UniProtKB/TrEMBL annotation:
The lineage of its organism: Bacteria, Bacillati, Bacillota, Clostridia, Eubacteriales. Its EC number is 2.5.1.47. PANTHER family: CYSTATHIONINE BETA-SYNTHASE (PTHR10314). The keyword Transferase applies. This is Cysteine synthase. It comes from Oxobacter pfennigii.
Amino acid sequence: MNDMSYKGVMSRKNEIMKKAIGLDYNNFERGSISFDYERMMKDTGYSLDEITKIQKETGVGSTPLIELKNMTKLVRKLSKLGYGARIFIKDEQCNPSGSFKDRRASVSVYHAKKLGFKGVISATSGNYGAAVASQAAMRGLKCIIVQECYDSKKAGQPEILEKQRKCESYGAEVVQLSVGPELFYIFLKLLEETGYFNASLYSPFGIAGIETLGYELVEQCRERTGKDPDAVVVTHAGGGNVTGTARGVRKAKSKAEIIGASVDLKGLHMASDRDFNRKSFTTGHTGFGIPFATWPDRSDVPRSAARPLRYLDKYVTIHQGEVFYITEALSQLEGLERGPAGNTSLTAAFALASEMPEDRIIVVQETEYTGAGKHHLPQLSFAKENGIDILTGNPDDEVPGANIIIPSHPSLIKAREVDLDRLKKSYIKNCIDNYNVRSVTKEDLKFLSEDVNVDVSYVINVLKSMDINVL
C-alpha cells in the first residue's frame, strides 16, 4: 500500500503526473536546464485544423469579433487629434461555459476520453474549472475540481463561490480547501486514488486549445477590416492565455504586437490567509502574472507549456478600480454586460488605444460571462466587508489591499508598463538557482534565448554577471 502522507505523496509526484497526463516529460529533457519545447507541443498530436474540429463537436470557438464603436469614440474624445485606435473585442463569453477556458479544456477532455480515462481532475478556482466540468459533461466523463475557496475564517470570495456553483451545476464534484499549501498535495492524492486524467491548465493540450483563439481573431479582423490587427491585448495570469493566443496569431502569419495585461495587486501574497480576501480579482493579476513569467515550471506539471516571455512584446498593469469603471462603461456604452476579470485586457486596451493613431486596430482577445458572484457590485460589497475603502478619485493613488479607487474621469485610466527586461533577467537567474548549476551548455544557452525571446549575446551577458560559465 502506498504511503499517503504528505511526504510520501510528494515524493511520487513525477510518477503520478506521468500516469495522469499520458506524457513522459523525461522524453523532452535536454542539457541541464533546457527541454525541447516545440517537440512537446507537437506531441499533443493535434494540428490546428484537428483542434478546430474537436472544439466544434462541443460548440467551442467561432465566437464573434465585435467592434466597440462607442468605446472608440470615447477614447478619441480623450486623445490628441488623429489618435484613438479602433477597438475590437473577441466575445468569448459565447463559449458553452462562458469563457475562453472552454478552448483550453476541450482538447484535454477530448484527449482524456481518447486515452480511455474515466474522469478528469483540475485544480483551479477560476473559469477553467467550469470549462472542464462542462466539457466533461458533454464527453460523458466524471469530473473533480479542487478549489482554494476560503480563508481560515471560512469566508469565501463571491467570485470563487460562483465558480463552485457553476461546476456543480455541470455535475462535477468540487473539493473546497482553505488557502494554504495543501492544494497540490490533495490534487496529487486524488489523481493517484482515482486514476483520472490531469486536465492541467499548463499541459500542452490546454495551451494548444487556445491557439484557435489567436488564429480566429486574426482571420476575423482581416475579413472585417481588410487588414491585420496592430496589437492584441491578452489578460495575463499563469501565462497560458498569452502563450496560446500568441501562437495562434503567429500561425495566422500575423505580426501583431502581443501585449499582456494584469491587474496590479502588488504587495498582496497569494498564499496569505490575511491577503486572500483583500483582493477583488482571483485571476488575471500580478500575483500570478509575474511569478509565472519568471518561473513557469512552478505549475502542476513537470514542464509548463505556458511560457509567456517567449511571446510578450509588452506587459502592462492596470488597477482594480479602473477595471470596474470599464466594466460599467462596456455595459452602458456598448450594451455588453461582461464579467470584470475578462475586462482586464479591455481596460488596458482603452488606455493603449489613445496612444495609437486612428487608423490602427487593437483587438481585445476575451470576454467572460457575468452574473451572481462574478458581477462587480457583489465584489465591491465583499471588498468593503473586508475592510477595503471604496473611493472615487485618481487610480494612481490605489493601494492593493487597502483601497479600490474608481476613476473620477476616464482620462485617468492608464496602462503602466512593466520592465520586461527585468523579468527576463529574473527568469534566467531562476533557472540557474532552481537547477543549481554553475555552467550551462550551448543547448541550454539556445533554450534560454528562445524562452525569453532575446539573442544569445543577451543571455551570455546575464550569465557573466552571475559568474556562470558557458561550456
